[in-house]
Design brief:
The structure is a homodimer. By secondary structure, chain A is of the alpha/beta class. Helix content of chain A is about 35%, strand content about 15%. In chain A, helix 4 packs parallel to helix 5.
Chain lengths: ~350, ~350
């Protein structure tokens, strides 16, 4: 049984910065999520607050309250927010120190390493897992091209922006493929994927740039050798033209993805966190063209529908499908059966 | 006066792996290059062997011979090769150890850090400069968008492949702009740029991926604040679709480059070092389109002409210019005056 863990999001649970936590609440998870600590939302159910589905994960006002009430007692405490630049938000420090004092193992996916924080290191007495700790060049792999011989279909799940649902869509497609009898794996590229228990992958943004392509290839090779799936989904990061960190070309060029599932937020005008400087997300049609030039084809567009009624989402989807001539799906509303059919078709034609 | 330095290329001087050394021989350099150590080419002049121009830089058979004959005695010893994956070639180890024993400071731009090599560290007694030592996330900068307000024209010098002359072209354009009375700076993104004495930049491929855009922006901001140039040239790395490490989108999207100078090797069919797996360089016309979608315009194409006669190069240039409708220049044959005119025009129109 996975170890029970508390997740800290103090003040952030209902923001995109808590997307790590949303993934863990939605599941799957490497840990058994016993509760969330967020004073602002204390007393509510984390699942119901996320998407209306009760999941028996209570939100607590503080670590002490959570520990007192939880059975089994959590052994791990996860930093549940991902901030721009990967810094620890001030509001989480007191909770973290409390968890460390209570003997919990701290699990952290921020760039800011807890094991390099003198105060927390002393309190935690070595019980720290820094997921995003960079590895030295000597431990990293350079690209060789071996990936091009892998007989599993590779699909990059890219997005028009950060925090737009790429990982969630990839996980849903994996589940739907498996339910339909296809072998499917997701290569994680972020800390949340690791936290969700994915076996193959690497932390894209904490990798020395020269080795991103080789590490991606290495993860795909290991995944194929050990699981022989029909389909390997590659979790995208950021967006191809996000100025704060363009990414995605590696998945197509180095991961040699044949197809792309492109996650899109029809009502988002500016790149996440760059609204104030009016940093506009470029047009969807251009992105499809760009992906084509990089060497892959967009097989489906998936919509980020938070805050939209199912009816409004359906209308958006229909309009985009008509304009682009590519199937458009709302994964969290309609499921992804249609994408499984597309994948079946691509496998048959490959 | 810059410190005198020996450069080690044992067995590699006439290969693209010695491009770092070629840049230092061609100049400028942070050090005064007193000689090259390469047994295979001992007795020749490094400049003459490179491009026919005598430069008074002798090639020696070993470090001892170089030290005996050089006056002033070199104080530094530079690893003059850049290998795939950044590993130290076996042929250089003995030379490096000899240089360390002789009291020289070792300067190394490989991913493989000399300060983490037990044997060399002991011999060098701390006299090691590892240019490509990665910096921790806490020392790195995240992208903010401030670069978009900089009133200097930004030009990305991209290429169709690695080791194709991007940095050399950028340096030539800088010199030609300065000679024409324009303020021009180059932002380095590789170890050779640093070795050539450039003030502003960062080592792109040794940077944690999440901070590449912010470090690039930070270098541009510092450069502008301190030198107020008319033009800032951004040194490209790799190529937009090089599967071993796609790069360049950052220069356009995060560096907010208005224009691109695109370095092209008309006779190179496969990506450098991936000839055996027939990893083909995609068409030039597509690259121009791709750059357009990323948000910049190709203002000129520059040719890598090694191994071509001036006449053959001119014929190639003419054919490409006719096909693409973009000015094509052979920097090492014709100079870059035509590019300075283009930049003047762009500055006037901006």
């Amino acid at each position: 049984m996975p170890e029970p863990a508390l997740v800290l999001t103090n003040g952030y649970y209902d923001t995109v910065f808590a997307k790590t936590t949303h993934g863990l609440v939605r599941g799957p998870s490497r840990y058994w999520i016993s509760g969330v600590v967020d004073a602002e939302h204390a007393g509510q159910d984390a699942g119901r607050l996320l998407d209306g589905m009760e999941r028996g994960i209570p939100i607590w006002s503080c670590v002490a309250a959570a520990l007192e009430a939880s059975n089994p007692r959590p052994t791990h405490c996860i930093v549940g927010v991902a901030t721009v630049g990967g810094r620890l938000p001030a509001s989480l420090r007191a909770d973290l120190e409390e968890a460390a004092r209570a003997g919990l193992t701290l699990v952290n996916g921020l760039h800011q390493l807890l094991s390099e924080d003198d105060r927390i290191r002393v309190l935690a007495q070595g019980r720290i897992i820094d997921i995003r700790r960079p590895r030295a060049a000597s431990a990293l792999r350079f690209w060789t091209g071996e990936v091009r011989a892998i007989p599993a279909l590779r699909i990059a799940v890219l997005g028009m922006d950060c925090a737009i649902g790429k990982r969630t869509t990839a996980m849903l497609i994996r589940e739907a493929c498996r339910a339909a009898g296809l072998g499917a794996e997701v290569i994680y590229t972020g800390q949340t994927g690791w936290l969700q228990g994915l076996e193959y992958g690497f932390i894209f943004d904490a990798t020395l740039n020269d080795f991103v392509s080789g590490e991606l290839e290495g993860a795909i090779l290991r995944c194929y050798q050990e699981t022989r799936p029909d389909v390997i989904l590659l979790e995208g990061q950021s967006a191809l033209r996000n100025p704060s960190g363009p990414a995605g070309a590696e998945l197509i060029c180095s991961g040699d993805a044949q197809g792309v599932i492109l996650q899109h937020a029809p009502r988002r005008e500016y790149f996440e966190d760059f609204e104030e400087i009016e940093c506009r997300i470029p047009p969807l049609e251009e992105e499809i063209e760009l992906i084509g030039l990089l060497g892959a084809k967009v097989w489906a567009i998936t919509l980020f529908t938070r805050g939209m009624t199912p009816k409004a989402a359906g209308t958006e989807a229909g309009a985009i499908e008509a304009a682009c001539g590519i199937p458009v799906v709302c994964p969290l509303i309609d499921g992804v059966a249609r994408i499984v059919d597309i994948i079946r078709g691509q496998l048959a034609a490959w």
